[in-house]
Write a structure and sequence with these properties.
The protein is built from eight helices and no strands. With 251 residues, the chain is an all-alpha fold. The protein starts with a helix and ends with a helix.
Length: 251
Protein backbone atom coordinates (compact mmCIF):
# COMPACT_ATOMS: atom_id res chain seq x y z
CA UNK A 1 0.00 0.00 0.00
CA UNK A 2 1.16 3.52 -0.75
CA UNK A 3 0.97 6.60 1.41
CA UNK A 4 1.35 10.14 0.14
CA UNK A 5 3.42 12.75 1.96
CA UNK A 6 0.40 15.04 1.58
CA UNK A 7 -1.42 13.04 4.25
CA UNK A 8 1.47 11.61 6.28
CA UNK A 9 2.67 15.11 7.12
CA UNK A 10 -0.80 15.87 8.46
CA UNK A 11 -0.75 12.76 10.66
CA UNK A 12 2.78 13.21 11.94
CA UNK A 13 1.73 14.80 15.22
CA UNK A 14 -1.26 12.58 15.87
CA UNK A 15 -1.11 9.72 18.33
CA UNK A 16 -1.39 6.06 17.43
CA UNK A 17 -4.47 4.31 18.79
CA UNK A 18 -4.59 0.85 20.35
CA UNK A 19 -7.08 -0.43 17.76
CA UNK A 20 -5.64 0.65 14.47
CA UNK A 21 -7.63 1.48 11.36
CA UNK A 22 -7.76 -1.07 8.54
CA UNK A 23 -8.75 -0.97 4.89
CA UNK A 24 -11.45 -3.56 5.52
CA UNK A 25 -12.85 -1.43 8.34
CA UNK A 26 -13.00 1.62 6.08
CA UNK A 27 -14.61 -0.44 3.30
CA UNK A 28 -17.30 -1.86 5.60
CA UNK A 29 -18.12 1.56 7.03
CA UNK A 30 -18.32 3.08 3.56
CA UNK A 31 -20.73 0.35 2.44
CA UNK A 32 -22.88 0.85 5.56
CA UNK A 33 -23.05 4.62 5.07
CA UNK A 34 -23.88 4.18 1.38
CA UNK A 35 -26.69 1.76 2.21
CA UNK A 36 -28.07 4.18 4.82
CA UNK A 37 -28.08 6.92 2.19
CA UNK A 38 -29.78 4.69 -0.39
CA UNK A 39 -32.46 3.49 2.05
CA UNK A 40 -33.15 7.01 3.30
CA UNK A 41 -33.19 8.24 -0.29
CA UNK A 42 -35.66 5.54 -1.33
CA UNK A 43 -37.99 6.48 1.50
CA UNK A 44 -37.62 10.15 0.59
CA UNK A 45 -38.34 9.40 -3.08
CA UNK A 46 -41.46 7.45 -2.16
CA UNK A 47 -42.69 10.25 0.10
CA UNK A 48 -41.87 12.88 -2.52
CA UNK A 49 -43.62 10.97 -5.29
CA UNK A 50 -46.70 10.64 -3.09
CA UNK A 51 -46.80 14.38 -2.49
CA UNK A 52 -46.30 15.08 -6.19
CA UNK A 53 -48.87 12.59 -7.51
CA UNK A 54 -51.49 13.05 -4.79
CA UNK A 55 -51.25 16.75 -4.01
CA UNK A 56 -49.55 18.05 -7.11
CA UNK A 57 -47.71 21.33 -7.49
CA UNK A 58 -50.62 23.62 -8.22
CA UNK A 59 -49.77 25.90 -5.33
CA UNK A 60 -46.63 26.68 -3.38
CA UNK A 61 -48.27 25.42 -0.19
CA UNK A 62 -48.71 21.92 -1.67
CA UNK A 63 -45.01 21.69 -2.49
CA UNK A 64 -43.90 23.18 0.84
CA UNK A 65 -43.14 19.85 2.60
CA UNK A 66 -40.64 18.97 -0.12
CA UNK A 67 -38.91 22.35 -0.03
CA UNK A 68 -38.70 22.28 3.78
CA UNK A 69 -37.19 18.79 3.71
CA UNK A 70 -34.79 19.93 0.99
CA UNK A 71 -33.59 23.02 2.86
CA UNK A 72 -33.25 21.36 6.27
CA UNK A 73 -31.41 18.32 4.92
CA UNK A 74 -28.94 20.49 2.96
CA UNK A 75 -28.09 22.53 6.06
CA UNK A 76 -27.78 19.50 8.34
CA UNK A 77 -25.71 17.62 5.76
CA UNK A 78 -23.19 20.44 5.34
CA UNK A 79 -22.92 20.91 9.11
CA UNK A 80 -22.47 17.17 9.76
CA UNK A 81 -19.84 16.81 7.01
CA UNK A 82 -17.70 19.63 8.38
CA UNK A 83 -17.85 18.33 11.95
CA UNK A 84 -17.27 14.72 10.91
CA UNK A 85 -14.21 15.50 8.81
CA UNK A 86 -12.54 17.77 11.36
CA UNK A 87 -13.49 16.12 14.67
CA UNK A 88 -12.69 12.39 14.52
CA UNK A 89 -14.20 11.78 17.98
CA UNK A 90 -17.69 12.39 16.63
CA UNK A 91 -17.07 11.25 13.05
CA UNK A 92 -19.22 8.14 13.50
CA UNK A 93 -22.30 10.08 14.60
CA UNK A 94 -21.76 12.82 12.03
CA UNK A 95 -21.26 10.25 9.26
CA UNK A 96 -24.68 8.70 9.88
CA UNK A 97 -26.22 12.15 10.23
CA UNK A 98 -24.74 13.17 6.89
CA UNK A 99 -25.85 9.95 5.20
CA UNK A 100 -29.45 10.37 6.39
CA UNK A 101 -29.56 14.09 5.52
CA UNK A 102 -28.13 13.50 2.05
CA UNK A 103 -30.52 10.64 1.50
CA UNK A 104 -33.43 12.98 2.16
CA UNK A 105 -31.94 15.75 0.01
CA UNK A 106 -31.12 13.50 -2.94
CA UNK A 107 -34.45 11.71 -2.57
CA UNK A 108 -36.37 14.97 -2.92
CA UNK A 109 -34.29 16.03 -5.93
CA UNK A 110 -34.55 12.60 -7.56
CA UNK A 111 -38.33 12.45 -7.06
CA UNK A 112 -38.81 15.78 -8.81
CA UNK A 113 -36.35 15.06 -11.63
CA UNK A 114 -37.74 11.59 -12.30
CA UNK A 115 -41.12 13.15 -13.10
CA UNK A 116 -39.57 15.26 -15.85
CA UNK A 117 -36.97 12.75 -17.02
CA UNK A 118 -38.16 9.22 -16.20
CA UNK A 119 -35.33 6.77 -15.64
CA UNK A 120 -32.56 9.36 -15.45
CA UNK A 121 -32.04 8.73 -11.72
CA UNK A 122 -31.15 5.09 -12.32
CA UNK A 123 -28.87 6.09 -15.18
CA UNK A 124 -27.01 8.53 -12.93
CA UNK A 125 -26.74 5.91 -10.17
CA UNK A 126 -25.35 3.38 -12.66
CA UNK A 127 -22.84 5.92 -13.97
CA UNK A 128 -21.71 6.63 -10.40
CA UNK A 129 -21.09 2.94 -9.71
CA UNK A 130 -19.15 2.55 -12.97
CA UNK A 131 -16.98 5.61 -12.28
CA UNK A 132 -16.23 4.42 -8.74
CA UNK A 133 -15.23 0.94 -9.89
CA UNK A 134 -13.06 2.29 -12.71
CA UNK A 135 -11.22 4.71 -10.42
CA UNK A 136 -10.75 2.02 -7.77
CA UNK A 137 -9.35 -0.38 -10.37
CA UNK A 138 -6.99 2.26 -11.74
CA UNK A 139 -5.82 3.12 -8.25
CA UNK A 140 -5.18 -0.51 -7.30
CA UNK A 141 -3.17 -0.94 -10.51
CA UNK A 142 -0.94 2.00 -9.49
CA UNK A 143 -2.09 4.13 -12.42
CA UNK A 144 -1.91 7.23 -10.24
CA UNK A 145 1.66 6.85 -8.99
CA UNK A 146 2.26 10.58 -8.63
CA UNK A 147 -0.43 11.80 -6.23
CA UNK A 148 1.06 15.29 -6.24
CA UNK A 149 0.51 15.46 -10.01
CA UNK A 150 -3.12 14.36 -9.54
CA UNK A 151 -3.50 17.16 -7.01
CA UNK A 152 -2.07 19.71 -9.46
CA UNK A 153 -4.42 18.55 -12.22
CA UNK A 154 -7.36 18.91 -9.85
CA UNK A 155 -6.29 22.43 -8.94
CA UNK A 156 -5.99 23.34 -12.63
CA UNK A 157 -9.51 22.04 -13.31
CA UNK A 158 -10.91 23.91 -10.32
CA UNK A 159 -9.26 27.18 -11.35
CA UNK A 160 -10.49 26.74 -14.94
CA UNK A 161 -14.09 26.07 -13.88
CA UNK A 162 -14.02 29.00 -11.46
CA UNK A 163 -12.58 31.36 -14.09
CA UNK A 164 -15.20 30.33 -16.66
CA UNK A 165 -18.00 30.79 -14.14
CA UNK A 166 -16.81 34.27 -13.24
CA UNK A 167 -16.42 35.18 -16.92
CA UNK A 168 -19.96 34.08 -17.80
CA UNK A 169 -21.33 35.89 -14.77
CA UNK A 170 -19.63 39.14 -15.80
CA UNK A 171 -20.84 38.76 -19.40
CA UNK A 172 -24.36 38.08 -18.13
CA UNK A 173 -24.50 41.39 -16.24
CA UNK A 174 -22.83 43.32 -19.08
CA UNK A 175 -25.15 42.02 -21.80
CA UNK A 176 -28.24 42.02 -19.59
CA UNK A 177 -28.97 38.35 -20.12
CA UNK A 178 -26.36 36.27 -21.90
CA UNK A 179 -27.68 33.31 -23.88
CA UNK A 180 -25.25 30.45 -23.21
CA UNK A 181 -25.15 27.52 -25.67
CA UNK A 182 -26.24 24.23 -24.10
CA UNK A 183 -22.84 22.62 -24.56
CA UNK A 184 -21.08 25.17 -22.34
CA UNK A 185 -22.80 24.00 -19.11
CA UNK A 186 -22.21 20.46 -20.33
CA UNK A 187 -18.47 21.01 -20.69
CA UNK A 188 -18.26 22.68 -17.29
CA UNK A 189 -20.21 19.84 -15.69
CA UNK A 190 -17.92 17.29 -17.36
CA UNK A 191 -14.88 19.12 -15.99
CA UNK A 192 -16.37 19.07 -12.49
CA UNK A 193 -17.19 15.37 -12.89
CA UNK A 194 -13.56 14.67 -13.81
CA UNK A 195 -12.49 16.65 -10.75
CA UNK A 196 -14.84 14.64 -8.53
CA UNK A 197 -13.59 11.39 -10.05
CA UNK A 198 -9.99 12.37 -9.29
CA UNK A 199 -11.16 13.25 -5.79
CA UNK A 200 -11.83 9.54 -5.35
CA UNK A 201 -8.12 8.94 -5.87
CA UNK A 202 -7.36 11.40 -3.08
CA UNK A 203 -9.91 9.63 -0.87
CA UNK A 204 -8.31 6.25 -1.57
CA UNK A 205 -4.90 7.72 -0.79
CA UNK A 206 -6.22 9.22 2.41
CA UNK A 207 -7.60 5.85 3.50
CA UNK A 208 -4.27 4.14 2.80
CA UNK A 209 -2.42 6.90 4.65
CA UNK A 210 -4.67 6.51 7.69
CA UNK A 211 -3.85 2.79 7.82
CA UNK A 212 -0.12 3.24 7.19
CA UNK A 213 0.11 5.94 9.86
CA UNK A 214 -1.36 3.51 12.40
CA UNK A 215 -4.24 5.78 13.38
CA UNK A 216 -7.08 4.44 15.49
CA UNK A 217 -10.51 3.23 14.41
CA UNK A 218 -12.09 6.67 14.66
CA UNK A 219 -10.31 7.70 11.47
CA UNK A 220 -12.05 4.91 9.58
CA UNK A 221 -15.23 6.96 9.90
CA UNK A 222 -13.44 10.07 8.64
CA UNK A 223 -12.14 8.21 5.58
CA UNK A 224 -15.54 6.62 4.95
CA UNK A 225 -17.34 9.94 5.27
CA UNK A 226 -14.92 11.53 2.82
CA UNK A 227 -15.57 8.73 0.34
CA UNK A 228 -19.34 9.04 0.73
CA UNK A 229 -19.21 12.79 0.12
CA UNK A 230 -17.30 12.26 -3.12
CA UNK A 231 -19.54 9.40 -4.29
CA UNK A 232 -22.68 11.49 -3.81
CA UNK A 233 -21.04 14.45 -5.52
CA UNK A 234 -20.32 12.26 -8.55
CA UNK A 235 -23.97 11.15 -8.57
CA UNK A 236 -25.19 14.76 -8.55
CA UNK A 237 -22.86 15.78 -11.38
CA UNK A 238 -23.75 12.68 -13.44
CA UNK A 239 -27.41 13.54 -12.92
CA UNK A 240 -26.85 17.10 -14.11
CA UNK A 241 -24.99 15.97 -17.24
CA UNK A 242 -27.76 13.55 -18.15
CA UNK A 243 -30.40 16.24 -17.61
CA UNK A 244 -28.51 18.60 -19.94
CA UNK A 245 -28.23 15.94 -22.63
CA UNK A 246 -31.83 14.77 -22.37
CA UNK A 247 -33.12 18.34 -22.14
CA UNK A 248 -31.27 19.30 -25.33
CA UNK A 249 -32.77 16.29 -27.17
CA UNK A 250 -36.26 17.51 -26.35
CA UNK A 251 -35.70 20.87 -28.01
Amino acid sequence: MRASNIFLSRFAKKGVGEQQATISGISIKTIILTLVTIITGAISVAAGMRIITVEGFETLEMAMPLWIAFGVSVFIGMFAAMLGLWIPKIANVMSFTYAIAQGIYLGVISAIIDIVFPGVVFMAAGATVIIFLIMLLLYRNNTFRNINLVYKVMMAIMIGVFACSILFLIMFFITGGLSIPWYIPLLISLAVLIYASLMLVMDFEYAVSVVNAGLDKRYEWVASLSLLITILWIYVKALRILIILLGNRRR
